[in-house]
Specification:
160 residues, alpha+beta, 4-stranded mixed beta sheet, two-stranded antiparallel sheet, 5 helices, 51% helix
């Protein structure tokens, strides 16, 4: 029986130049939540008989997001490359709103924090929708998985 999900995920740490405790916590939570529950079916690999679960390695190569997909035993199945141009603004917006959020949780009122958090979720949701759209025909996934993957894409873009 097919088990189309991610069982392990790796980030190319060589592209991450800097991250603070807040970002590190976001990364840990996104990976934990992603492994606990996700939907991930690489269309071409599944058509050739791959049944999952999968190991996924995320990296940035030549200004493209690389999704290296392998079987649990390590056999490489495929690499999907996505141009990052359409993600630049959502990533920038997400960083800006997260920075405001992290500052707010230290000194703002609960109402101010809630307002910023709603804006943060909105940016995150729109970016996840974009990711689902960009993966169409390549990977079948759900919204929650796309949200967590977008968080990890952002971690790959932290430059300090």
């Amino acid at each position: 029986m097919a088990d189309h999900r991610i069982s392990k995920i790796d980030l190319d740490d060589s592209t991450i130049l800097w991250r603070n405790a807040d970002v590190e916590q976001e990364r840990r939570v996104a990976i934990f939540d992603l492994i606990e529950e996700n939907t991930f079916k690489p269309v071409r690999a599944a058509a050739k008989g791959a049944e999952g679960p999968y190991h996924l390695a995320l990296s940035v190569r030549d200004d493209r997001l690389a999704l290296d997909i392998a079987e649990e035993q390590g056999q490489e199945l495929e690499t999907i490359l996505l141009g990052l141009a359409r993600f630049r603004r959502p990533i920038r917006d997400y960083f800006a709103i997260c920075d405001s959020y992290y500052q707010a949780i230290r000194k703002a009122t609960p109402n101010e924090i809630e307002t910023i958090d709603m804006a943060r979720r909105g940016v995150h949701n729109r970016a996840a929708e974009l990711l689902v759209e960009r993966l169409e025909g390549k990977v079948e996934t759900d919204f929650a998985t796309a949200r967590r993957l977008f968080t990890l894409i952002c971690v790959l873009h932290i430059r300090g």
